[in-house]
Amino acid sequence: MSKVPVKYEEEEEEEQEEEEDDDEIIGITDYEDSQTFTDGDPDSEAEEGVLNFSDPFSTEVKPRILLMGLRRSGKSSIQKVVFHKMSPNETLFLESTNKICREDVSNSSFINFQIWDFPGQIDFFDPTFDYEMIFRGTGALIFVIDAQDDYMEALARLHLTVTRAYKVNPDINFEVFIHKVDGLSDDHKIETQRDVHQRANDDLADAGLEKIHLSFYLTSIYDHSIFEAFSKVVQKLIPQLPTLENLLNIFISNSGIEKAFLFDVVSKIYIATDSTPVDMQTYELCCDMIDVVIDISCIYGLPQSGTPYDNESMAIIKLNNTTVLYLKEVTKFLALVCFVREESFERKGLIDYNFHCFRKAIHEVFEVRVKVLKSRKFHSQRRRSKKATPNGTPQDPM
Ligand SMILES: Nc1nc2c(ncn2[C@@H]2O[C@H](COP(=O)(O)OP(=O)(O)OP(=O)(O)O)[C@@H](O)[C@H]2O)c(=O)[nH]1
Ligand SMILES: [Mg+2]
Question: 52-75: string of b/e by CB count within 10 Å (b at 16+)?
């Protein structure tokens, strides 16, 4: 109960500050630049592909991510570990997938897509498999290759899948996960990546399709590499990514912060970071921090609040190397995790003030997104109702 007035006060405070907020700190004008939203423009080809997809079960427009690859390559394990918090060891007991499994991942309005987990051996020549319909609404195709196995057959399959998909929808992002690399030495990893990269691209070049771009990632469910790879796949599907990166850049440079990530708390996918390079250890520390915060909240949090993560969630962890990890809630599903040097953290007031501006900007980005979606829905409804026969009756009696 005590939370309600606090929230109210905060809102009031925000309203008062609205006028005073110094836009230049976080560059609010940058994200209002219509250029930033061109990717999400209804006229853009990629979006059109998604919008035109007539799926009888889907009411919303969601980019689709397909998980494909040979049997036992690890597709279902990836989905379970990233989105269901399954422990990697438990995946040993997963049964082979025998039909396409579709799942909605809608835990934030930024991460709002469907994942389709395919059985290992899909037959493109099977008439019941309508691959044109499937590829038309696809944002990303993840092809999983088992690096611990002989991958020649997988490469042939990759080639077949990619060329088919490209013919139907050239806007698909093709992502190749060279998976199960936990069993390989560092040298072996690099060598495998180079070999797979070379062979896959040679096959495409032989078919005269060198314009198809494949991205390669070394992944394993036994470390953070799978989360990092998935983060990159998802980021490519977020039209607001340049805006978010820009906001993060302005935020860190004005606050003396070393590195900042915007995390989806549930999946631990980072949906954006500033433009300084990402170092795997930094990312792992951030993931661990989210786990600690959620676990402590689950065990010792207020029972009446119901969720382990809310608008008061925040944490400070001082490391033994003069670095401070600072986590703060941004939206219901997103958290900002920053790396700050101890001496910069002395100016916590400044960081908090800039964070307040940053948070407000992120919320405005969300609002724009919601408005765009609403107006699209409205226009498509109007277009449908206008499709009437010459005698005035609707074309579709449904
Ligand atoms: N060592 C290792 N094993 C993995 C990894 N990912 C998955 N596996 C194992 O690979 C086996 C097959 O995993 P699945 O997820 O069922 O494979 P799948 O691609 O969904 O297989 P189908 O549904 O038959 O197409 C399981 O025993 C997993 O434990 C990984 O990163 N490293
Ligand atoms: Mg499976």
Answer: ebebeeeeebbbbbbbbbbeebbb
